[in-house]
Amino acid sequence: MKQQIIFIKIKYGGPLLVPKQTLTRDSRMFKYLINDLKFKELDLEDFSPEAVTLFLTYLDNKKLGDIEDVMFREVHKLAVVFEVDWLKNSCVRWLIRRSRLATSDKGKVLVFDECWYILN
To answer: Rounded distance, CA 2 to CA 81, Å?
Structure first.
């Protein structure tokens, strides 16, 4: 059986071609959009192409890999918007680990800002 491909529109460049199973396996929102509403193309242009690519990689690998501080918020936001519970929880665990390692003022400010963002 041929695998269905979904087109993901991003800000810059051509669309990303993603297997339907990668998107719908863990996401209630993708299941709704693709299975129920029959979307074949999704617009993720509100997010940076780098964050979308990371998010899709994490969905495919089913684990949160290395993530840079600057990507954390967008990846977490994608996990929230598309209702990927394991990724939301992994992001929170990443932030907790990051808070334990924060020794500089810059590191502590990052942790505070991200905690504040998640709680609001």
So the answer is: 29
Q: What is the pLDDT of residues 43-90, one digit of tens each?
A: 999 999 999 999 999 999 999 877 888 899 999 999 999 999 999 999
- As a whole number of angstroms, the distance between CA 5 and CA 73 comes to 27
Both tokens of 116, joined, read 């504040």
Helix residue ranges per DSSP H, the chain: 20-24, 28-31, 49-61, 69-81, 85-101, 105-119
d(CA 97, CA 69): 12
Residue 91 DSSP SS3: helix
**Are 54 and 75 a contacting pair, CB within 8 Å?**
yes
pTM greater than 0.85 = yes
